[in-house]
């Protein structure tokens, strides 16, 4: 979803570096995968094509923080409506 983002904190020897991958357009999402000692973070379109990818050695990754955009589902919408009083009471 547009706005989803993943922050990657990497050990760069004497310091740390922070990288960010963001779903930049509507319909795109950010996916993470760990394969063969490599952390891969990709921005993907609706049909599954990869737009861009960031790869890091898993031994150097200190933190991987996924920050989804707050979504409002149907249960939250119904909870916001005021409750009606029971007419039979």
Indicate the percent of residues in helices.
under 10%
What number of domains? 1
Total beta strands? 6
Question: Which structural category do the helix and sheet elements fall into?
Answer: mainly beta
Oligomer: single chain
**In which order are the strands of the major sheet placed?**
2-1-6
Uncertain segments are none
Note the total helix count.
1
Terminal residue distance? 45 Å
SSE arrangement, N to C: EEEEEEH
Describe the structure concisely for a colleague.
With 89 residues, this protein is mainly beta. The protein contains one helix and six strands. It has one helix spanning 74-80, and strands spanning 5-11, 16-22, 29-35, 38-44, 50-57, 61-67.
Task: Please describe what this structure looks like.
With 89 residues, the chain is mainly beta. The protein has one domain (5-70). The protein contains one helix and six strands. It has a three-stranded antiparallel β-sheet with strand order 2-1-6, with no helix packed on it. It is globular.
Question: Which short descriptors sum up this protein?
Answer:
globular; mainly beta; single chain; 89 residues; three-stranded antiparallel beta sheet
Task: Give the SSE layout.
Blueprint: E1 5-11, E2 16-22, E3 29-35, E4 38-44, E5 50-57, E6 61-67, H1 74-80
């Amino acid at each position: 979803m547009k706005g989803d983002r993943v922050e990657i904190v990497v050990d760069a020897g004497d310091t740390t570096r922070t990288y960010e991958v963001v779903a930049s357009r509507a319909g795109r999402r950010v996916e993470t995968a760990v394969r063969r000692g490599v952390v891969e973070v990709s921005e993907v379109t609706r049909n599954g094509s990869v737009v861009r990818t960031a790869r890091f050695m898993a031994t150097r990754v200190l933190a991987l923080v996924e920050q989804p955009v707050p979504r409002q589902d149907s249960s939250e919408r119904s909870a916001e409506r005021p409750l009606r009083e029971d007419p039979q009471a």
